[in-house]
């Protein structure tokens, strides 16, 4: 098939447009804001407790099991086959959602939706293998923004169809099925990359581009934490490694895994990167858990069978609010080395407060408002965290750290699911779950508040010590300032 061959064109336009079309139609699913009313309604007639404790946990487990193998396979087979696999998984998911009946069918559906989530990495990594580095920032922005636009448009369309045209939830899923089928067709026409970040990397002595837009949050060069490796990953990093023009597959594979281990060890040796990654993993675990079960909470507060619901409008506003929060983060000039942990503590506390509000209120509108606050706060911080983690990292190392952070977040989320949600654990109702999630974010806020106090006090003491050296001779002052800098970098 011609669609499976590598495109002769070296232009960035065709693969970018093609990938953006795939991203748009794969996210243009108007049924998503109303998936719980659909499952709990007459079409499927599944109880909320069964959805909460027996169906939704399967997504978390399958995502965790599939993530690392898919992450490795994605690079090894060069992205496009995995994007096609994601398109097929989308289609199977919505075929089961439209035609499947019973508990087992819904659990199989959740497995394939876990496959969709695990293969999402290919969508964001593909473009770096088919466009030149000077276009990275531009095309990355296009690919990410198109998914936000599609999700917002789908949510608005769903709300309009449900509220004004009285369209049933079943037909929203039919529209979603048609959309993901179109996305699958676009995936077939993506050019096949000739390289990948790791297994098929091309040796290069050029300075690697840093992840797009990462300097947006830097008020000055980062000198208050340990430097992280900056050179791009290649197989010929060491001269004594020998030529790799015709390497044995086993040797290359082993070398990649060894290099990954060395890269991760070097990256996480930076305390700055380590603590931001720690927040990323724990907060993302909590965020995904809330997103999974928030529609069930809404249906608990205002049953869809007897109330007018506005899930689509709320999802659209939440996505828009998250996008505005992310944009605002790029306009704020802050010394994140000094005040970063304080910001993490404050906004994590805001997340906790919004979750407590959602738990205790009996008013669905207050519950909606709490979700808007929660998602906006998280999107603001995750944007800042993404760029802080990217400091001094090449695109390859950023992708590696991002993958590991996501895996750790999934492990934490799985522990929460097993302990709190699954029937094999506590099997708590959704209303009690949100009390636990609020407490979870309170602990995160407390930890980073204590660390921020330590950092600010240490920095203040360092400045006072520096000023106390002004009466000494120049050589003594130089030695004292050097010692102060050594102290302030060990936070």
What does this entry look like structurally?
The radius of gyration is 24 Å and the shape is globular. Helix content is 70%, strand content 0%. It has 16 helices and no strands. The termini are far apart. The protein has 491 residues and is mainly α.
Provide a count of the helices: 16
Distance between the termini: 57 Å
- On the 0 to 100 scale, the average pLDDT is 80
Count of β-strands: 0
Approximately how much helix is present in the residues?
over 70%
Short note summarizing the structure:
The chain is mainly alpha-helical.
Task: Write the SSE topology.
Elements: H1 13-27, H2 35-40, H3 48-76, H4 80-99, H5 103-118, H6 120-126, H7 136-163, H8 169-188, H9 249-268, H10 271-301, H11 311-331, H12 336-360, H13 364-389, H14 395-421, H15 430-467, H16 474-488
Helix pairs in contact: 1-7, 1-8, 3-5, 3-10, 3-14, 4-5, 4-6, 4-8, 7-11, 10-12, 10-13, 10-14, 10-15, 11-13, 12-13, 12-15, 15-16
How would you describe this structure in keywords?
70% helix, 0% strand, disordered N terminus, mainly alpha, 491 residues, single chain
């Amino acid at each position: 098939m011609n669609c499976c061959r590598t495109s002769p064109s070296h232009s960035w336009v065709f693969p970018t447009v093609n990938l953006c079309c795939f991203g748009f139609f794969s996210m243009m699913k108007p049924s998503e804001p109303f998936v719980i009313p659909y499952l709990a309604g007459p079409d499927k007639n599944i109880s909320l407790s069964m959805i909460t404790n027996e169906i939704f946990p399967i997504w978390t487990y399958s995502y965790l099991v599939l993530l690392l193998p898919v992450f490795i396979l994605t690079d090894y087979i060069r992205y496009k086959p995995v994007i096609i696999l994601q398109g097929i998984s989308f289609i199977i998911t919505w075929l089961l959602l439209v035609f499947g009946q019973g508990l087992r069918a819904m659990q199989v559906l959740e497995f394939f939706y876990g496959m969709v989530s695990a293969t999402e990495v290919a969508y964001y990594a593909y473009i770096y293998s088919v466009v030149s580095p000077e276009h990275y920032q531009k095309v990355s922005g296009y690919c990410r923004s198109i998914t936000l636009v599609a999700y917002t448009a789908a949510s608005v369309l769903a709300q309009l169809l449900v509220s004004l045209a009285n369209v049933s939830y079943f037909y929203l899923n039919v529209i979603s099925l048609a959309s993901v089928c179109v996305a699958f067709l676009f995936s077939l026409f993506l050019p096949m990359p000739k390289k990948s970040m790791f297994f098929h990397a091309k040796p290069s002595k050029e300075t690697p581009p840093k992840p797009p837009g990462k300097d947006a949050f830097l008020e000055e060069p980062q000198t208050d934490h340990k430097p992280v490796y900056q050179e791009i990953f290649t197989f010929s990093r060491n001269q004594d490694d020998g030529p790799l023009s015709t390497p044995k597959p086993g040797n290359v594979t082993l070398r990649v895994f060894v290099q990954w281990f060395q890269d991760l060890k070097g990256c996480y040796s930076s305390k700055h990167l380590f603590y931001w990654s720690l927040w990323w993993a724990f907060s993302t675990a909590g965020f995904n858990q809330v997103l999974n079960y928030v529609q069930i909470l809404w249906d608990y507060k205002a049953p869809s069978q007897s109330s007018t619901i506005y899930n689509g409008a709320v999802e659209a506003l939440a996505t828009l609010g998250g996008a505005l929060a992310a944009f605002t983060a790029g306009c704020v000039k802050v010394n994140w080395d000094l005040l970063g942990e304080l910001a993490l503590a404050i906004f994590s506390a805001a997340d906790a407060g919004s979750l407590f509000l959602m738990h205790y209120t009996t008013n669905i509108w207050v519950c909606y408002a709490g979700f808007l606050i929660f998602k906006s706060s998280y999107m603001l911080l995750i944007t800042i965290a993404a760029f802080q983690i990217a400091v001094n990292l090449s695109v390859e190392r950023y992708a590696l750290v991002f993958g590991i952070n996501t895996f750790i977040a999934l492990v934490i989320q799985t522990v929460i699911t097993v302990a709190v949600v699954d029937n094999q654990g506590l099997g708590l109702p959704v209303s009690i779950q949100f009390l636990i999630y609020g407490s979870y974010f309170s602990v995160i806020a407390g930890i980073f508040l204590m660390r921020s106090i330590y950092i600010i006090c240490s920095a203040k003491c360092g400045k006072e010590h520096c000023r106390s050296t002004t009466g000494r001779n120049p050589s003594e002052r130089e030695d004292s300032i050097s010692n102060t800098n050594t102290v302030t970098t060990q936070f």
